[in-house]
Amino acid sequence: MVEIGGKRTIMRERSVEERIKNFHSVPLGYSEDEATREAQRCIQCFNAPCEINCPVHMKIKAMIRAISDGDFKEAFFIAKRDNPIPAMAGRVCPQEIQCEGVCPLAQRGQGINIGKLAAFVADWAREHEVKEEFHIEERPEKVALIGSGPAGISCAVDLRKYGYRVTIFEALHTPGGVTQYGIPDFRLPKDLVDYELSFLTEIGVDIQINMVVGQNIEFGELLEAFDATFIGTGAGAPKFMGIPGEKLKGVYSANEFLIRTNLMKSYHFPKYDTPIVCGTKVGAIGAGNVTMDAARCAKRFGADEVHIIYRRTRKESPAREEEIEHALEEGIIFHELINPIRIIGNEDGWVTGIELVRMKLGEMDNSGRPRPVPIIGSEFVMELDTVIEAIGTQPNRLFLNKALELETTRWDTIKVDDHLMTNIEGVYAGGDAIRGTATVILALGDGRKAAKSINQYLSKRS
Amino acid sequence: MKHTILRKEKLSAENYLIEIKATRVAERFQPGQFVILRIHERGERMPLTLADVNPKNGTITLIFQVVGKTTMELRTLNVGDTILDIVGPLGNPSEIKKFGRVICVGGGTGIACVYPIIRALANAGNDVITVIGARTKSLLMLEEEIKSVKSKIYITTDDGSKGHHGFVTDVLRDLLKKYDGEVNRVISIGPPIMMKSVAELTRSYHIKTMASLNTIMVDGTGMCGGCRTFIDGEMKLACIDGPEFDAHKVNFDDLMSRLEMFRGKEAQATEYFNKHVGAK
Q1: CATH 1.10.1060.10: which residues of chain A?
Q2: Which residues of A fall within a CB distance of 8 Å from B229?
Q3: Calpha distance A384→A348 (Å, rounded)
Q4: Cβ–Cβ contacts within 10 Å for residue A291, how many?
Q5: Maximum distance among all Cα pairs of chain B, rounded to whole angstroms
Q6: pLDDT-derived band of residue B192, with 50, 70 and 90 as boundaries?
Q7: Inter-chain CB proximity B265 and A260 less than 8 Å
């Protein structure tokens, strides 16, 4: 029997011994031959469920066909048409529940490696200095974007394509949002983030850094000065468990740990100024992508033991399969069904351990996952000198408190209608700011959708 | 856009004043707020409270004490040099209204931070009494400026080289006795140990006392949570909920403990700077 599709072309990776010593990219990228071989496995199925299941509806089938024909340039143009940051998305999307998950070949566990192919074409284009070109028919209307993360990026690109004048206001000293401060280099190298972002400036997007809307420019001022506004402020505020001991030295939010590491490059300390204190026994609480990122950073800072502390089981973990796999390969220990009760410290105020209780899975909860229930009397202490709380993030109240006219939900996410318009006419929102913690690709999808709505809104108005 | 240094003054062996072009900050600053600066690409984000602004010229005035790597590097900058990033104003402004009689206490570089508040409170019609203190005479600053905004001023030095020989709290204790029941508010900015002592003193008099917390901080916009502090058992972030808090609700011991977290690394950074950059 002929085996249709064959086996996935394995991505070459940096060895574990090497990678835990630095922050270099773990995947080494496909060669042209590998990419072609992988693309040729695609059966070019009629329905292309991969495209339907892609939040930005990338023309994946056509991209793969171009790759299999060796026309990488065309493949890049196809990818870029719907996805302004294919190098990033190819690396961080949860493909297994999107494009790759619905690939007919996935039934045998050998779905086309679409993420790696998207990353390949983007890397190839960069290497060969191939850039997407398009003619912009300038229009006079001005649109303000708050936040330069994935939602803002895709919204900005599409708005420029429509011809609008676009200004992005970014609170930090560098644009990119979570792709800069959140996701580590070994998963998303910052040179490619910078490269994909440089495209924005090239097509005429004005990026204003160090601008904190609500603080050094008022939300109302933007509404006055611009014809439409898009809010892509993300979910950048850390959540803490609210257990005793969070004030201790050695306790971080994942955000702080990752901002120090990624945005401030504390792995170059003291060449770079920002320090990080990472001990030898590290506990990372949670089991999402951010937890894996923080745990893997800790490993690279030289921790002997890194423990993932999760109250459910690996099956319920929201992390990408690849992130968990990489973490395990690097020697990170994944503890299931334990939950922190308090963080323990010494008289000098440093963390010495964490008290945990064993859990069991109960009835299904609202998230469709079994609710973890503590087993009374099963408490025990794990010795740790560093604790990283990576239990999720929430929208930042700094902006929301200064934009009180915006309607929000009880989770502090911004309320939008089907067109992503908020309760204020001409003001749209998308990404984590409306979803809570979600993904880069969903934010990209929202940005595109909002750009379309803004175009309709402004076209009708003029 | 980089920010050019237009003026630099050495106030003492450890204290420097720089005036920098930062139009947006200058236009919007209100007393009590702070900025975060990053000298260059490899720099850390350092929060600093402003001593003054000149909205007309679009400049801000920073006073810093040379205590660590970044302030050592700031000291090496001269007029015409630039600072890569300045973001602000951040944090909430001090509450400025007519309280009646207000005592403002400034310790060390806290004197620079409290000065714009003194001025605003005086302009709002308060009877402002200022107590400033430092380790020694040469570390005192802004005495004339404070007098010029019609505030009575008391000076203390730890070594007795000027004014009262002792701590700001000695003078504050006398003032609270003298004006028993007639002090409506106390503002305290300085080292945490000073703010703690001030808070302990005013607690028994039931005088609302505000302290401006200088915590560990990275982004300054509510993202890292490094500046978390517990007020009445509730977690607050100094960057977006502060920097001023009711001093009677602040746990200064926790604050001081958390400030030690990066001490070892800070020493390492200073050593590296002296070896590689400062020596040039």
Answers
A1: 16-127
A2: 247
A3: 15
A4: 29
A5: 57
A6: very high
A7: no
Beta-carbon separation of A216 and B269 below 8 A: no
Structure tokens at A243: 């257990």
Q: Which CATH class is domain A240-391?
A: alpha beta
Position A1 scores a pLDDT of: 41
Question: Span A16-127: which CATH code?
Answer: 1.10.1060.10
Q: Hey, what are B200's tokens?
A: 């302990």
| pLDDT tens, position by position, A413-430 | 999 999 999 999 999 999
Taking the CA of residue A225 as centre, how many other CA atoms within 13 Å lie in the half-sphere pointing to its CB?
Answer: 11
**Phi and psi (nearest 5°) for A224?**
-70, -45
3-state SS assignment for residue A358: strand
For the domain spanning A142-235+394-461, the CATH number is 3.50.50.60
In this predicted structure, the answer to whether residue A271 has a pLDDT above a threshold of 60 is yes
In this complex, is the C-beta atom of B90 within 8 Å of any C-beta atom belonging to chain A? yes
Helix (H, G, I), strand (E, B) or coil at B169: helix
For helices A114-127 and A60-68, give the axis angle rounded to 10 degrees.
60
Q: What's the whole-model pTM score?
A: 0.94
Q: Cα(A437)–Cα(A231) distance, rounded to whole angstroms?
A: 15
Structure tokens at A182: 């959140």
Q: Which of helix, strand or coil describes residue B122? A: helix
Neighbours of B2 (CB within 10 A): 12
CA A220 to chain centre: 29
Q: Please tell me which of the candidates A216, A249, A268 has its beta carbon nearest to residue B25.
A: A216
In whole angstroms, what separates CA A231 from the centre of its chain? 17
| Contact flag B221-A250 (C-beta cutoff 8 Å) | no
Q: Which two tokens stand for residue A115?
A: 């993420």
DSSP-assigned letter for residue A259: I
Dihedral pair phi/psi, residue B250, rounded to 5°: -85, 140
| Dihedral angle of Cα A286, A289, A292, A297, to the nearest 10 degrees | -120
